[in-house]
Amino acid sequence: MSSVTTKNLYQEDFALWIEETVKKLKLGHLSEVDLENLIEEVECLGKSQRKAVRSYLLRLLEHLLKRRYVMMFDCYRGWEIEIRNFRQRLKLELEDSPSLKNYMIEILPKIYQMALENVIDSYPDTDFPVIYPFSDNVDELLNHNFWDS
To answer: Does the predicted TM-score (pTM) go above 0.70?
Structure first.
């Protein structure tokens, strides 16, 4: 299959393109691999993981803030379930890519500010801390019930 045909395959049948690319890589036919699109796809995988971590972390922090500071006792159970769910999703991402722990620590201040804006908007009568109130330790963030302290 020529490189022009391979690039057309990428646009016309992505699943078949993947199958053919994997076959060529396994056989060591590197000169036949559509490197341009392969590089793009690999870069997208990394971006996708980071995007998932950002999204799950944002939602986790929102629910931690609500559970700890919003006095709506009938909502606690639902928030705790959401906290558990977002923690599980983050743990799965970190299991696949442990280096994303460093990324979480790096984005924590920015994501906290976003979470804070979101909960202040939803609960304007609640006093939320401007300064990040939870642990910077990723393992603690993913396991500790901060509302029990």
So the answer is: yes
Q: What gap in Å lies between CA 148 and CA 143, rounded to an integer?
A: 12
Here the tokens at position 23 are 């076959």
The string of DSSP codes covering 61-123 is HHHHHHHHH---GGGHHHHHHHHHHHHHHHHHHHHH-TTHHHHHHHHHHHHHHHHHHHHHHH-
- 97-101: long-range contacts, CB 8 A cutoff, minimum separation 24: 97/49, 100/49, 100/50, 100/53, 101/138
Q: Give per-residue pLDDT as tens, 68-100.
A: 999 999 999 999 999 999 999 999 999 999 999
